[in-house]
Amino acid sequence: MTHLKTATSTTELLSNLNDECEALRAFVVLLEDERRALLGQHTEKLLPLSEAKIQLTDKITALARARQEHLQASGLDMAAWLKENATQGLPTWQETRRLAAHLQRLNQTNGELIQIKLRYNQQALGVLYGAAQSTAGLYGADGQPNQPSASRILGSV
Questions:
Q1: Which residues form a coiled coil (predicted)?
Q2: Are 29 and 79 in contact (CB under 8 A)?
Q3: Residue 100 maps to which CATH number?
Q4: pTM for the whole structure
């Protein structure tokens, strides 16, 4: 009975690892799509991508948690467990770790692109707000036209 349970656990863990690796591949595609949207003028694509990222993150988290629960009883990390119990899973584990590192870099790059876009939008809003303020009172209390103060020209960066 113990051998059957161990075989089932091994099969489940390898299946889980394959699912996790596949989910990470899908996440790479999402982050690359996000990067293209951020670099282009396709910001309308960001909301659906964000929703898909949340769903995929939940799936990856559940798969990682299940993997950790399987390993907890053994007291080994994933690589050591695979070396002892299922060496055929080592390439998938290495790919999983490589994808996770790649995802971290992609996510960092996308975060930086978002910050750049945010700063640009804040500057544009500041210019528009300043222009609105300077034209808000075209005539003063004395009925004479107000002269707008020197400021940036709309559309300039």
A1: 14-69
A2: no
A3: 1.20.58
A4: 0.76
